[in-house]
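Workshop exercise sheet. Pairs work together: one partner reads the sequence aloud, the other fills in the structure field after running the prediction. Swap roles for the next sheet.
Pair: D.N. / O.F.
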Amino acid sequence: MATPSVKTSDQSSRSKEPTKTNSLPLATRRIAAWAVEITLVVASGLVPFGIGAYANSRSDLDRVPLNPLLVQTERAIASPLALPISYGTRNVASPTNLLWTIALLAPLTVSGAQLYLLAKTGATPAKHRFGIKVVNAEGKPPGFKAVLVREGLGRWGLPMSVAYFLWRNSFLFPSLGGFASLAVIMLVLEAKGLPWQQDRRALHNTLAGTYTVDDSTPLTVQSQGDGQGSQSFESEKDEEDAIASIVITQELPRQQSKQRQGIPQNPNYTVVGVAFFCMSAALAILVGTQIYVKILRNQQVTEQSNNQQFLALIKDLNPNSTATNNQRQKAILAMGTLNDAQSTQYLVDLLSKETDPILLQTIQQALVNVGPNAIPNLKRMNQFLTGELEPVKGSKALPPEVLEKQLQANQYAISKILAVYNGQTNGLDLSNVSLSQNGSEQSYFNLVLDKKDLWGIKFKSANLSFGSFKGSRFRGVGEDGRWDTYDDWIADLSQARMRQANLTEANLSRVLMVRTDLSRAILNKANLSNARLTAANLSSAQLEGADLEGAVLENVSLTGADLSDAQLKDADLYAARLGRVIAVGTQFSFANLTKTDWQGADLTGAYFDHANLKDANLNATRLTKAILRSANMENANLRNADLSFADLQGANLAGADFQGAILTSSKQNQTEQFVQTPALGVQSAVVEGVDFSKVKNLDPKQIAYICTQGGIHPRCP
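Structure field:
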């Protein structure tokens, strides 16, 4: 049978003059087309995302919860890339939701359209522009199956999987820069082809059986012999020169067939292999079944033994029993070693009924021996007793003082377990429990968990008021042993009551504290970086030297709080209430302070450079020596504010209200205050080059000062 061959039509080729773009080497055009394709996909997402981020920074737009689709996508991306935990439940500007959703869907649409065109026509718009085409062995468009293998598996799937595996198991983890570097290296190696390949075709073309050809050179098919034919097209072997070509023939299958015929094959090998596999599988099933049956038997024996011991111990703990206190103590401790559901429940019930102080301590010790497994039962009893003490819900079956003592015993048991099993309580659910003082002196309880590892505990809606957590850690590194990754153990303190709690030097970084009541709490030098404190109550709290960098404090109440020397760089305090706050030397650089209320606050020496103070209420604030360089103070209320010694260079003051604002120190000699330009922050406000042309309610003295100190105003000579 004659071998079909294909020749290029020289006449047609000569009749078509190459364009400037198509005169470039094939390899260069392939890279350029690929770069354009990627740029289109990336730009389709970045452009709406950037516009959405800008809209989110506007203060005049309504705030709505983040789209659930975006929340789930964010979490899905954060987990494999080991990014910090994503809370999701945050508010954004209303147009931002739409724009960010478009930013998510647009790249999928653009890439899907490119794949469709590649499958149906063999070229995307970028490939068509650069005169290249992808075809199969017959010279036709590759089709959907080949395109999915080519792009999904060959070009992206395998290289990215290898890069990800190397990244997760190397010193580069969790650096995203390291992963990006590995990904680029893998993509380059994939594009260059395997070293042992003669033609060095790219892996994605090899897997899909496709070829990248020069579309500007017409291809013709010639039939010989039996009429079968094939096309010739440029190979990727010598793409740099864009000269070499390969000829697809039917001889390759014959050669492969001959090679296969040269391999000795014996059907007995197959039979032996199948038999060996079947015997191994049967043996594995048999051994596994025996082990499973043995485990079940051991469990049954253990349960029977525990039941017998449990029934025997109950006899000594029966109220009508004649057992001595010493015997009862031994029975209680023995029951704590059983560590099964019925014994734990019995101990919790006994704890709420016993009145003997010595036996109460023994029961608590037994529950500590049970460990965190006793927490669910203790939690249910805690909630029941708390409900009984409420004036409205309680049934008042027992006097309040009795209920308070029972609750106190329960609280001590929970606190002892948390203290003893320090750092082993990740995932523990203590939501809605009451670990606060009960009120009366007879049942006084004081929660002390200083320098404890409380990471990963769910304290949602728990009452932890007056508790002491000095130096405690509410966040851990997680199983991978690295900070700022998705598996970090982070406590949930949302809606918890922590009034007057002592959290000095506590690690609350990235902890969820939405609507948490921290009024009058002590948080000096606490680490609250990137914590989520949306709508939290921090009124009169002490936050001296606290780290709140990047924290989310939207709609938070900080009225009367002490923020001296605190770090709030890049923090989001949108619409926060900061009346009468003390923020001497506090760092607010680059913070979002839109619509904040600072009336009567002491902001001496505070740093507001590049901060957004648009629509902020700074009425009667003390801004002496404050740094307001390049701050956005558009429409800010600065009535009666003391701006002496403040640095306003580069600030945007359009629409700001300066009625009664003090720009120069009252102690300065009145005869010289408009004569000499002050040095930076030495005598009076630095306004050189600051535009006051759109500032409202300036009086003649203020304008005179602005003009003499280099400020800009229409009335300046």
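Discussion prompt: The two ends are 100 Å apart (CA to CA). What would you look at next?
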